[in-house]
Amino acid sequence: MTSTDRRVVVLSTRDIPGDREHVVHNCEDCACPVSGERAARELPELPAAPLLRAREVVEVPLEPGYFALFSPHGGGGVVVVDTAGRELLETFAEPTPASSVVAGSPSLEQAIRTLVGFDVLHPVGRPPAPVFEPSTELTAWLHVTNKCNLRCPYCYVHKSEEAMDDDVAKDSVDALVASAKRHGFRSLRLKYAGGEASMNAAVLLHLHDHATALCRDAGLGLSAVLLSNGVALNGALVSALRTRDIRVMISLDGLGETHDAQRPTVGGKPSSALVLRTIDRLLDAGISPHLSITVTNRNVDGIADVVRMAVRRDLTFSINFFRDNDCAASFDDLQYAEQAMVEGLDRTFAVIEEVLPRRSVLGSVLDRGQLVAPRRRACGVGDDYVVIDQSGGIAQCHMEITRVVGNVRTDDPVSAIRSGQGVRNLLADTKTGCRDCSWRNWCSSGCAAATFRATGRWDVQSPNCGIYRAIYPRAVRLEGLRILRYARRSA
Ligand code: SF4
Ligand code: SF4
Question: Of 147, 307, 386, 433, whose CB neighbour count within 10 A is largest?
């Protein structure tokens, strides 16, 4: 916190001790990988060149006298200023040497360095430019079974009794580890999925143990998450997950009837009570599950309730929008209207504002986007994301799992997904509608598969564009309020 004789206040996440741990860096929901994670931010020395206010800085009012600032062409993160801090910023509407403003005040110097560090101010001739961190982690979705005990209408899997066996699991791990080494990745992230992956628990655990041994020998880092509907995780499996440090993502789309309306059992029965019981069981065992909330037209009015529960129980969560697919096509009540989605998210944001958790929601509430680190694509499809089906077939995206581009027994997985002709995951700044939009490095144009499904084109903005533009400034506000509360407390 910077408070000077001019009473200038400039706050950032740097003023909240240990704040990097309060950000969700990996969206666990649909297994879309998040490439890049912002490093701990160091403030620059006071530049000698005259400073200028950055263009298109988003300014959102907070409580009276305070404002959140976000520089969309920079490296991410929000800064909070008071009225005097805002006036300080206006000093730099024209190129002005910092030294003439600082006039020997250490706290003013700190305030200006923070504004430069968060790309709100910049030296003349050197406007902020996003740094896209190269990917060092290979993420693999392992589709260990086609079976499921639920029948969610938005699911893209044609259910069957087919499941991965030990041989395919072993060959898949062998191929992934060799491919990760060959292509220079430093770590492997495995997502155990299906169907309901826990219905093939024995193979999943063997697979994981094999991956642990192989990664250790190969000098690769390993992390893993079970993507589960949370209906039937028994005590033995929970304990095995805990022992192996496998994270758990549970799908929960609302509380009670809201969840049940779109996640019924095979027999059409409600499942929410079973899921809540599993969450308790996991917490009792020392596993804090991540909640994935899929929003459709059916549950849009109820997501605020499940988010309130998550925040109160200090559970991480991510909100993702329903993506149309062939299996869901016969359910015409899933498609949401833009206005209804914005209003539902508004209510959700109001709940978060009321509770105002210490944990940031910048990586949780923006569908495929986030405001943590700039990204040129919403996911790693075609680059650092491999899908392996129950037979060892390689695909680029789990939504396109039947479009096989290779097999683990004959092909190098990373080469196969990079040369595959399926999903065209274009850079956001090459897409019509996005290339001149200041949010392009943050929504990253949304899900490529969903855009193609809605428009028949890969090279245009997301069908959720209007929603993104409406909610991003509101997320900036939430982050500003959080910084204001917790930075003040720690000051
Ligand atoms: S999808 Fe919309 S909000 Fe996102 S970059 Fe493209 S035009 Fe901007
Ligand atoms: S294309 Fe869409 S569904 Fe597939 S991994 Fe990327 S964001 Fe997820």
Answer: 386
Q: Residue 42 has what pLDDT?
A: 82
For residue 406, the one-letter residue type is G
The total of other beta-carbon atoms located within 10 Å of residue 238's CB is 19
Protein residue closest via CA to atom 2 of ligand 1: 465
Q: State whether the beta carbon of 423 lies less than 6 angstroms from ligand 2.
A: yes
The rounded Å distance from CA 468 to ligand 1 centre is 7
Q: Which CATH number fits domain 137-336+376-419: 3.30.365.10, 3.40.50.300, 3.20.20.150, 3.20.20.70?
A: 3.20.20.70
Contact 284, 248 (CB under 8 A): no
Ligand in closest contact with the CA of 465: 1
Instruction: Report how far residue 113's alpha carbon sits from residue 123's, in angstroms, rounded to the nearest whole number.
Output: 11
Q: What pLDDT, on the 0 to 100 scale, is given for residue 6?
A: 56
Residue nearest to atom 5 of ligand 2 (CA): 32
Q: Whose CA is nearest to atom 5 of ligand 1?
A: 440
What is the best residue among 367, 405, 447 to mutate for testing ligand 2's pocket, by most ligand atoms within 8 Å of CB? 447
For the structural domain made of 10-131+478-490, what CATH number should be given?
3.90.930
Dist. CA 24–CA 383, nearest whole Å? 22
Single-letter amino acid, residue 300:
V
105, 110, 116, 120: CA torsion to nearest 10:
-90
pLDDT > 80? residue 254:
yes
Distance, in Å, from the CA atom of 260 to the CA atom of 105, rounded to the nearest integer, reads 60
Please report which ligand is nearest the Cα atom of 469.
1
Compute the average pLDDT of residues 86-103.
Answer: 95
Q: What is the pLDDT of residues 266-295, one digit of tens each?
A: 889 999 999 999 999 999 999 999 999 988
The structural domains of the chain, with segments of one domain joined by +, span 10-131+478-490, 137-336+376-419
Q: What is the pLDDT of residue 1?
A: 44
Q: Which atom of ligand 1 is nearest to the CA of 446?
A: 1
Token code pair at residue 58: 């988003």
Q: Taken in order 199, 202, 208, 210, is the CA torsion positive or negative?
A: negative
Pairing state between β 137-143 and 221-228: unpaired
Ligand 2 contact via 381 beta carbon (within 6 Å)? yes
Q: Which residues contact 358 (CB under 8 A, 6 or more apart)?
A: 16, 22, 482, 486
Q: What is the pTM of this model?
A: 0.91
Distance between CA 392 and CA 252 in Å, rounded?
Answer: 29
Instruction: Please give the mean pLDDT across all residues of the chain.
Output: 90
Distance CA 228, CA 211 (A): 20
